[in-house]
C-alpha cells in the first residue's frame, strides 16, 4: 500500500465559503476517494488560513476579535464540508499551536542557514491578495492580480532569499514536467521565473494579527510564509519525524490558478532552503465565474452553497462541478446549465437505467437477481465495453481529468441503456427465452460496476444505488479488484427505493 497525500489551499476566514472553495474541496475529495479505491493509504488535508491583514480588517469591520471571526467562520467551512461529504483526514487552522511552533522554528532555521536576512522594504501591498508588489508591477496603480487598491509600505523587516532559487527551480521544472499541471500553466510559471525572482519580504511590522517572529515581538510573519507551511506542519514536521517521513512529500497540492505562483515558486523555494523534498504535483484549476467575473467573496457575486445543496442535493452539485469544466479551464456557473445536466445525465441516463433494471428484476424474477446463461454476442459486447471503460477512467483519473472520466462512465451508462433497447427484455419474457436471465444479470452487473465507479464522485448516491441493487457490503471499502466483471451474485434480492434523482422542474429564472 502506498501513501497518497492530497491538500487543498487553506481558505481565508474573512467570509463564508462559496462555490469556488467547494470546487477545490470536491475535486480533492474525489481524488482522495479514487486513490482509496486504487488501494492507496490516503491522507487528505484541508483547513483555514486565519492570520493577516485581510482577516484583521474584516474583524475590525465586524467589531469582533480576529480569533472570534475565525472561530465562527470555521464552523461554516466544516458544515459545508460535511454536507458535501468531504472526507478530509485533518483540518488544520493556522492559529493552532502545532502550526505556530513549526512556523517560528522554520523561520529561525532559515535565519541560521543564511537564507533569511534583515533589510528595508519599500513597495506596495494588496490586502485582498496579501501580496507585495513593486511600482512597475502595478497596473494603473492597482493590484495586477485583482485590480483593487494597493497601499504603500515602507518598513524594516526580514527577507527570504528567493532570488537564489530561480535557476534551481527552472532545472526542477525541466526535470519534472509533471510538477505543474496543466501544462499551459507550467509555461506561465517558467516565464515568470525566467524574468528573475526578487527576494521576498516575509515580515510585517504594523500587523498585530500574525505569528510573531520569536524574540522580535514587534514583527509578525507574512501570512503566506505562515500559511504555506501548513502542508508540513500538519504532516508532523519537527514534531513526529516518523510520520513526516512517511507522508512527505505531498502527492498533489490542489490550488486555484490565482495562487499558483505561491505554490509553484515560493513554496518549493522555501522547501529547498530547508533541505526538504518538493511536492510531486501542483495542480492549478480554473475559476468559476459569474457574469464574466471570477466568483469571489469580495466581489459579492457568489452562489449560496447552502441553497444549492438544499435544492439539488450535495451529490448533484458535486456532479455538476466535476462534470461541467475541465479542471484546467474556467467555467461559468449557471443554474440552467446545472438543471439541464441534472435532468439529462442524472435523472434520465443514470436514474432510468437503475429504475428500469430493478423494475424488470422485480417484475420478471420476483426481485431476485437471475444467473447468466450462455451469453450471446450482444451480451459479451457489454463486457468488452465495461473493461474498456475501466481502463479509460483510470487513465483519465491519472491525468486528473474528472470531467472526461465522468463522460466515459456516462458513455457506459448509455451503452447499458442502449443494450436494453437492443435486447428487448420484454420480448424475451413473452418468448420465454432463457436469454432474459443473461440480459438482466448483465444489467445488474453493469449497475454494480457503475455504482463503484461513481462512488468517488457522488458518494451518497452511489451508496444508495449499491444498496438498491441488493449489495450488502460497504461500498467505501471496494477496491479496483471489485471492478472485475462477473462478481454480481445471482440470488440476491434487489431493494427498490426512491428514485435516485427525481426530475426537477426548471427554475423560473432569467439567464
Ligand atoms: O488564497 N473558482 O485563500 P482563499 C474556483 N488563504 N476556485 C476558487 C474560486 C473561484 N471563483 N474562488 C476561490 C487563499 N477558489 C489563501 C490560500 S494556501 C496555503 C493559502 C478556491 O480563501 C481556489 O482553490 O482566497 C483558490 O485557490 C482558493 O479557493 C482561494 O481561497
List keywords for this structure.
single chain, 511 residues, alpha/beta, Isoleucyl-tRNA Synthetase, Domain 1, six-stranded parallel sheet, four-stranded antiparallel sheet, 18 helices, 16 strands, 48% helix, binds ligand ME8, ATP binding, Rossmann-like_a/b/a_fold
Count of helix runs: 18
Query: Which ligands accompany this protein?
Result: ligand ME8
Strand content: 15-25%
Within CATH, the superfamily of the domain at 335-493 carries the name Isoleucyl-tRNA Synthetase, Domain 1
Net shape: elongated
Count of beta strands? 16
- Identify low-pLDDT runs: none
Topology of this structure?
Layout: E1 3-12, H1 19-37, E2 41-49, H2 53-62, H3 66-83, E3 90-93, H4 97-112, E4 116-126, E5 131-133, E6 151-160, H5 166-175, E7 180-181, H6 183-194, E8 200-201, E9 203-204, E10 212-213, E11 216-221, H7 223-228, H8 230-233, H9 241-247, E12 252-256, H10 260-273, E13 282-285, E14 288-290, E15 293-294, H11 305-312, H12 314-324, E16 331-332, H13 335-365, H14 377-398, H15 402-423, H16 425-430, H17 435-454, H18 459-468
Helix pairs in contact: 2-3, 5-6, 11-12, 12-13, 13-15, 13-17, 14-15, 14-17, 15-17, 17-18
The protein binds ligand ME8.
What does this structure look like?
- This protein is of the alpha/beta class and 511 residues long.
- The protein has a domain at 335-493: Isoleucyl-tRNA Synthetase, Domain 1, CATH 1.10.730.10.
- It has helices spanning 19-37, 53-62, 66-83, 97-112, 166-175, 183-194, 223-228, 230-233, 241-247, 260-273, 305-312, 314-324, 335-365, 377-398, 402-423, 425-430, 435-454, 459-468, and strands at 3-12, 41-49, 90-93, 116-126, 131-133, 151-160, 180-181, 200-201, 203-204, 212-213, 216-221, 252-256, 282-285, 288-290, 293-294, 331-332.
- Helix 13 (335-365) packs antiparallel against helix 17 and helix 14 runs parallel beside helix 17.
- The longest helix is centred in the last third of the chain and has 31 residues, at 335-365.
- 45% of the residues are buried.
- The structure holds ligand ME8.
